[in-house]
Amino acid sequence: MSWNGVQQRRNSWQDGVLGTNCPIRPGKNFTYVLQVKDQIGTFFYFPSLFFHKAAGGYGSIRIWSRPKIPVPFPTPAGDFTVLAGDWYKRNHYVLRRYLESGHSLPFPDGLVINGRGWNGYTFTVDPGRTYRFRVSNVGISTSINFRIQSHKLKLIEVEGSHTLQNTYHSFDIHLGQSYSFLVTADQEPQDYYVVASSRFAPRVLTTTAILHYSNSRKGVSGPIPWAPTFQIAPSLMQARSIRWNLTASGPRPNPQGSYHYGMITPSRTIMLANSAPYINGKQRYAVNGVSYVPPDTPLKLADYFKIPGVFNLGSIPTRPPSGNNAYLQTSVMAADFREYVEIVFQNWENTVQSWHIDGYSFFVVGCWMNQDGWRAMDA
């Protein structure tokens, strides 16, 4: 299991990406022990091996503030989890064979909200009260736009950080991202659409749930509220509007760490460019021209027990190479302990790319866009 967004203190071995710990065998149990004292907020977990995530094996994680620590908004009347994402009719092992045979994934068959299709899930609210909606994009390949018919979304938290409370009519959520919104039931008592639709996809996929007023006698009606589909500018402007609430309390009254990251001079810059090359006649995916090949011995074990010949430091360049010569390699990049590194992500593909940075805190400091769209981000 991978705990998306949850920091692993001192050691990342309990985050279940390939090579960090053993799979849980059928009929067996395993207890994870995590310390989250420096985190709060909304996250989710998912199985990270054998494409089990595509079968719906995911769930929400809520990390609460300590009771005596104030939060920058009144206590909501209720707390809802919204796990939205793309869905395939094919079984997960069939999808895995697509990738293993060197082909890209097919286009998703639809979207789901909490595992259900059109109007398959209901959120019940009382008139006049305010509720917290924790929304995560748990899909495989598709960015989504989230909205609630005739209601406004007040952003209050992004993956463990309180934000300035901007209000939106709809919100783009990319793969792996989690956001919290306050929604007030201030409309006429009836049922309303809760909508998720695809963004930046060849065709628009849409699914709905229902926001049900407890005294409603009228079902959902009218057109589904509009949202952008291919337009890049609204998504970029929205991302730039998110600001950290620096006056809000953190997970504990005496937070540790530095608040002067903008004054720290990075020791070096690493540039990571994703690509989708064909290697040996098969569709592969690569970083800086290197497509990762898992070794027979897990990297964590090879590193801990100093087993030679499993990997080589520097087997992946720290900058994109010139040309299109991609190759297969067990790629491992070296870094020094407590080193401050500037990492630049580059995307020259025609699709949105999401990066999972396992077990670390990253601070976004800038982005760059050319005439074709949003291309790179410093972290």
UniProtKB/TrEMBL annotation:
Domain Plastocyanin-like: 1-66, 79-216, 296-366
Assigned keywords, A-Z: Glycoprotein
InterPro entries: Cu-oxidase-like_N, Cu-oxidase_2nd, Cu-oxidase_C, Cu-oxidase_fam, Cupredoxin
GO molecular function: copper ion binding; oxidoreductase activity
Family listed: Belongs to the multicopper oxidase family.
Protein name: Plastocyanin-like domain-containing protein
Species this chain originates from: Gossypium barbadense (Sea Island cotton)
